[in-house]
Design a protein that fits this description.
By secondary structure, the chain is of the alpha+beta class. It has helices spanning 2-14, 32-36, 72-93, and strands at 44-46, 51-53, 57-60, 63-66. It has three helices and four strands; from the N terminus they run H-H-E-E-E-E-H. The strands form two sheets. It has a two-stranded antiparallel sheet with strand order 1-2. Strands 3-4 form a two-stranded antiparallel ribbon.
Length: 97
């Protein structure tokens, strides 16, 4: 894995890009059994400037992904957003009745 991160970092530098640790997230995908085998060292990723710690849920292009790829976090977020907008519509509706 270190070789892969080094390769990504080198490619980024040749393209005049920089990995931003504050905007980067790491997630391990797999079954519960596979994820249970990960050690503490596996859950951290050492970049040249910083260290990233693996998360259980990450966001990519607005979609929340979790370690099992079951989209529970995305569904919860979608329901939460829908309820928020329904409450706002109910509040606004009072002014038009």
């Amino acid at each position: 894995m270190i070789v892969a991160i080094t390769a990504v970092n080198e490619w980024s530098q040749t393209q005049k890009l920089k990995l931003n640790p504050q905007k980067s997230e790491v997630i391990w995908l797999g079954t519960r059994q596979q994820l249970a085998k990960l050690s503490q060292a596996d859950t951290t990723l050492q970049l040249p400037d910083d260290t990233l710690i693996a998360q259980s849920v990450v966001r990519n292009l607005g979609v929340q992904l979790d370690t099992g790829l079951n989209f529970d976090a995305q569904a919860r977020n979608c329901v939460k957003t829908c309820y928020y907008h329904l409450r706002r519509i109910k509040q606004i509706k009072r002014y038009f009745d």
